[in-house]
Write a structure and sequence with these properties.
The protein starts with 13 loop residues before the first strand and ends with a helix. The radius of gyration is 18 Å and the shape is globular. Strands 1, 2, 3, 4, 5, 6, 7, 8, 9, 10 and 11 form an 11-stranded mixed sheet that branches. Helices cover 47% and strands 14% of the residues. The chain is built from 13 helices and 11 strands. With 312 residues, the chain is of the alpha/beta class. Bound molecules: pseudouridine-5'-monophosphate (PSU) and manganese (II) ion. Pseudouridine-5'-monophosphate binds next to α2, α8 and α12.
């Protein structure tokens, strides 16, 4: 099935999974999902179970899930169960952002797409809503390391709604919010006056913007488009109370993980996966349980937003 691409020259590189193509052609709601969380964010088999379950949650809400990845050089918009399962088991998958997605395509490689690369692929296919766990942002100590995720630049330029639980608490949330404001990215806390902190419902920072329904989020997206404002928007959806790990409890684990990363000279792309794995170890798996719960919670909200957008 042929769908309308935002850039026709991209078509030869992209495979759209049949149910996703059918939904897009019919104007039905579709929610994109990233895959770095599968290849680099969680261990097997939890990653596989999470990825399947999140797709099911979106389908149960009445939208069509499209997990995005690069497999053997093909940009995949939606995976079959088999493709998703084998990606979850692949040891050598690349971590792909704006800087390297084309490399993986040109060289026939396989990789998980980060928030940035997933936004690029989703937009090419005409998908407007995307659910993830937490976005990348400004790392602690960025004034020395210059480590600022390409996710922030992508939010500034690509018109996709990213539903997250905020910036990962391993980051400098305050600086991340500053960069997003500078780059003109609306940060909308969902039904909260406070920006969430991934595993925790509350960071020390008040929400730049607040909306309380999927319909209002859809309306903001359309209003931005009508006003010719480029780029995406970030929805920060607090993890459910029953699943959260309070920020004061997380702080010690995050600090210990950061120290370990420094001691082992971890840098660049390896930082985020290292910190997530270390925190999982330090919390005896509790952080993973919360991570899965918040992705599911985001998938549910993203489906509702996609449905509201499709109706509008
Ligand atoms: N959210 C999670 N787990 C993850 C990530 C997000 O719950 O593994 C991934 C996302 O793909 C995000 C990436 O785009 O981490 C950020 O990596 P970096 O800081 O290197 O830009
Ligand atoms: Mn980085």
């Amino acid at each position: 099935m042929e769908i309308k691409m935002t850039l026709e020259t991209a078509r030869p590189y992209i495979d759209v999974h049949a149910p996703v193509a059918a939904a897009l052609a019919a104007g039905k709601p579709v929610v994109a999902l990233e895959s770095t969380i599968i290849t680099h964010g969680m261990p097997y088999p939890d990653n596989s179970a999470m990825a399947a379950n999140v797709e099911k949650i979106i389908a149960d809400e009445g939208a069509v899930p499209a997990t995005i990845a690069v497999i053997g050089g093909r940009i995949k918009i939606g995976l079959s169960d088999g493709e998703r399962e084998s990606l979850a088991m692949t040891g050598g998958a690349m971590k792909l952002s704006r800087a390297d997605i084309a490399y993986a395509v040109a060289e026939g490689r396989t990789g998980g797409t980060t928030v940035a690369a997933t936004m690029i692929a989703a937009h090419l296919a005409g998908i407007k809503v995307f659910a993830t766990g937490g976005i990348g942002g400004v790392h602690k100590g960025a004034e020395k390391s210059f480590d600022i995720s390409a996710d922030l630049d992508e939010l500034a330029r690509t018109p996709v709604i990213v539903v997250s639980a905020g910036a990962k608490a391993i980051l400098d949330i305050e600086k991340t919010l500053e960069v997003l404001e500078t780059r003109g990215v609306p940060v909308v806390a969902y039904s909260s006056d406070i920006v969430p902190a991934f595993w925790s419902r509350k960071s020390p920072y008040s929400a730049p913007l607040r909306l309380d329904s999927p319909g209002n989020i859809a309306r903001l997206y359309q209003t931005r488009a009508a006003l010719g404002l480029d780029g995406g928007m970030l929805v920060a959806n607090p993890v459910p109370e029953s699943d959260e790990i309070p920020a004061d409890k997380m702080a010690g684990y995050i600090e210990a993980a950061q120290k370990a990363a420094e001691a082992q000279n971890i840098s660049g792309k390896a930082v985020t996966p290292f910190l997530l794995a270390k925190i999982l170890e330090l919390t005896n798996g509790a952080s993973l349980k919360t991570n899965i719960a918040l992705v599911e919670n985001n998938a549910r909200l993203a489906a509702k937003v996609a449905i509201a957008l499709a109706k509008a």
